[in-house]
């Protein structure tokens, strides 16, 4: 998605060789007009797949998932990283290791919001090692739902997550695939 790549080149900041800060438009301050274009692109990619639920994980993916859900006219379910008093009843649970935070989270979704009748599109802002995506896929499988695929805004293609998931037969569509990045050279995309 050229619009997204241009925005990353313009406003993204590389820290070291593996951190891409896009917090000015993607995951802290959010450019909703850009999100609308991202949502339309995911709709185009997954048109005709029968998506009736979008699943993401808190917190960075929620905004993108919500705007994408407008294109699909379906609800968003977000996996919570902690049990809270307002989640009653049975839950699906899995463990997810966060690349960004270096922590392992117990991630949960209420069983009343995900079930065998659902065709689920997972949406997330980043794909690096694939742990978050694998956790969300586990939740979909526990629910007996159908996984349509995953829509990723930025994939760090130099890390193993995307290739490993695709090798398992999971459809992963990433709008910007980063081949390499450094503070000196900036971001190089796979198709540059």
Automatic annotation (TrEMBL):
Q: Give the main location.
A: cytoplasm
**Compartment(s):** Cytoplasm
Q: What is its EC number?
A: 2.4.2.22
Q: Keyword Repeat: yes or no?
A: no
Give the top-rank taxon of the lineage listed in the UniProt record for this protein.
Bacteria
Which InterPro entries did the record assign?
A: PRTase-like (IPR029057), PRTase_dom (IPR000836), Pur/Pyrimidine_PRTase (IPR050118), Xanthine_PRibTrfase (IPR010079)
Which positions are annotated as binding xanthine?
20, 27, 156
Q: Which GO terms describe its cellular component?
A: cytoplasm
Tell me any Pfam family this protein matches. Answer: Pribosyltran
Kindly state which reaction or reactions the protein catalyses: XMP + diphosphate = xanthine + 5-phospho-alpha-D-ribose 1-diphosphate
Q: Name one GO molecular function term.
A: xanthine phosphoribosyltransferase activity
Q: Does the keyword Glycosyltransferase apply?
A: yes
Q: Coiled-coil regions in this chain?
A: none
HAMAP family listed in its UniProt record: XPRTase
Q: What does this protein do?
A: Converts the preformed base xanthine, a product of nucleic acid breakdown, to xanthosine 5'-monophosphate (XMP), so it can be reused for RNA or DNA synthesis.
- Oligomer and partners: Homodimer.
Q: Protein name, please?
A: Xanthine phosphoribosyltransferase
**Species this protein is from:** Flintibacter faecis
């Amino acid at each position: 998605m050229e619009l997204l790549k241009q925005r990353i080149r313009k406003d993204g900041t590389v820290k070291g060789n593996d951190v891409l800060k896009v917090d000015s438009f993607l995951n802290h301050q959010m450019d909703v007009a850009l999100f609308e274009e991202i949502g339309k692109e995911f709709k185009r990619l997954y048109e005709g797949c029968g998506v009736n639920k979008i699943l993401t994980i808190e917190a960075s993916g929620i905004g993108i998932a919500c705007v994408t859900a407008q294109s699909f006219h379906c609800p968003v379910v977000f996996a919570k990283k902690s049990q809270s008093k307002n989640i009653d009843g049975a839950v699906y649970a899995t463990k997810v290791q966060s690349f960004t935070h270096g922590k392992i989270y117990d991630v949960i979704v209420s069983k009343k919001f995900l079930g065998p009748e659902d065709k689920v599109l997972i949406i997330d802002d980043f794909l690096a090692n694939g742990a978050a995506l694998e956790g969300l896929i586990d939740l979909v499988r526990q629910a007996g739902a159908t996984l349509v695929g995953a829509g990723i805004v930025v994939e760090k293609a130099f890390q193993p997550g995307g290739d490993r998931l695709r090798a398992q037969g999971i459809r992963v569509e990433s709008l910007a695939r980063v081949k390499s990045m450094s503070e000196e050279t900036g971001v190089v995309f796979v198709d540059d």
